[in-house]
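Researcher: Please translate sequence to structure tokens.
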Amino acid sequence: MKNRLHSGLTVNPNSTLHDGTAEVFIKNLFKHRYSMSVIKDQIIFKINRYLSKITEKWGRLSFSLSLSKNLLNELISTIRVKKQLHSAVVAVLAPWFEDTTLDIRDGYLMRIKNIDTSVLCNYFRIYFYECQYYKVNRIIVDVISDDVIYVRYNSKYRKQRSFVEKLIAECGVCYTHSVLRMIPFEKPAKEYRWLDLFQGTICHILDAHGAAVEESLMLDNDDVGIWVKKAEEMYFSSATGVVVVTLSMKKYFMNKYYDRNINYILYPIFSDNNTKFNGSNNRKSNVLTIVYAGGCQPWQNISYMKEAIESQINLADYYIYITNPSMFIDLWENTDLPENLLVKAGSVQEVNEVYQKAHYGFLLRDENIINQVACPTKLIEYIQSGIIPILKYDDIGDSKCMGLRYLPVEDFIQGKIPTERERFMMSKTNQRILFDRIHKQSGPSEIKNLIQTSIDRY
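Model: Translation complete:
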């Protein structure tokens, strides 16, 4: 089978050939009189996939009838050419943010997109992602644009790990979004499945995103916590720089790894358009509108949100856009939802439309290290849209020291709601704080300087 870069994004790697050609059933290959070259490619693909399934069951090394070496050489040649044109090629350990199998509303993906468009856009980038939603039995390489290639792999297979390691080493610069990207999706206890990334002089930049170890432990999975801790140790022992989203996060890691010589770069999380403040702070409707748009992880306090809504059910119209609507609906114990309460997943457009009229937004975090170092995308979106956050805990990231204006959830439950004039002034204060922070921070230029310094040094 001839390997060549597939132009475009493969929706499902396991239903297409290496070049993006759709798979054809055997009975249709001869029925529709395909050419011998097409039949050959299709049959070899099916045999290769069958052998991969067998070796997966037996736990043996994968076989491959594809010419993966040719594909590797083609990519290495591409990297070398791009280096001459761009002066740097950056390997990015993260999913491509427009991967159609993922939810673009996720704060993690929004951060990846923000870094790509504000920092890495002047470089040639190769994204490397171990899929968690389907098993990739062979390396999938998609050409997203002239400056972006997307590689999906499975760390289970030695040849695929070697493929990825060689490409990243060739790039010379690696930007990793969260230490979680280092952990093999299956059987991380088998240390040989971990990518060997820290040999040689490659420049590693870690975007920490949050307190990953503590988050994994909060999800009640001690085994995962062990591997997250290992991954974090590896990065903080070898990274050229660590990007943090808050000063609180920087202080936390400096205390945790006080004996490491680490270059910290502060680059807060901002929404898609860093300089745009959506809509007006004025709200014309006399009916209060309260929104929540986010996940249902333990630290989101979904149960407490339900109790708060129930205590003031007649106060406002509620729009709950949540990743798992049934989880929130089940909290109402099979009773009919109030007519003024909408619960659904919601599209990006729907959420944005409600943001333009919402007065308040729930952000009910507890007092713990996860929230103390966080910079929630949801909080930034609320502020940019003129929405006042309803908080349970006010020391989220740097918000308290910055002077963030908010409505305590205890006041909300007791019906102590600011007047519209007061709410308007609170929203203006919050936007001024955010605006100043956006234009005073130097994160993007510091990251670019770090990349350039590494290139010049090596």
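Researcher: Any highlights?
Model: The chain has 17 helices and 15 strands.
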